[in-house]
Specification:
InterPro entries: PA1571-like. By secondary structure, the protein is α+β, with helices and mostly antiparallel strands. The protein has a domain at 21-51. 23% of the residues lie in helices and 13% in strands. The protein contains one helix and two strands. Strands 1-2 form a two-stranded antiparallel sheet. A hairpin with a 5-residue loop joins strand 1 and strand 2 (34-37). The radius of gyration is 22 Å and the shape is elongated.
Length: 62
């Protein structure tokens, strides 16, 4: 009699290196790979937004 081995379902992340414990989210690229979102990535995005920020013009009362 053959013994059957049950396999758990494989996840996309099973084939990826383990991200740092600081990762709190992931992006999925065009090839379906998960990319860990790091604190440095968030800081960089915030710096870029600050550089592009423009103060709103004041509205005139009607």
């Amino acid at each position: 009699m053959r013994q059957q081995v049950q396999q758990k379902p494989r996840l996309l992340s099973d084939n990826l290196p383990r991200p740092s414990l600081q990762a709190r989210g992931y992006l999925v690229d065009e090839q379906g790979r998960e990319i860990a979102i790091t604190e440095r990535m968030i800081q960089q995005a915030c710096m870029e937004l600050e550089q592009q920020w423009v103060a709103p013009q004041s509205l005139k009362a009607v």
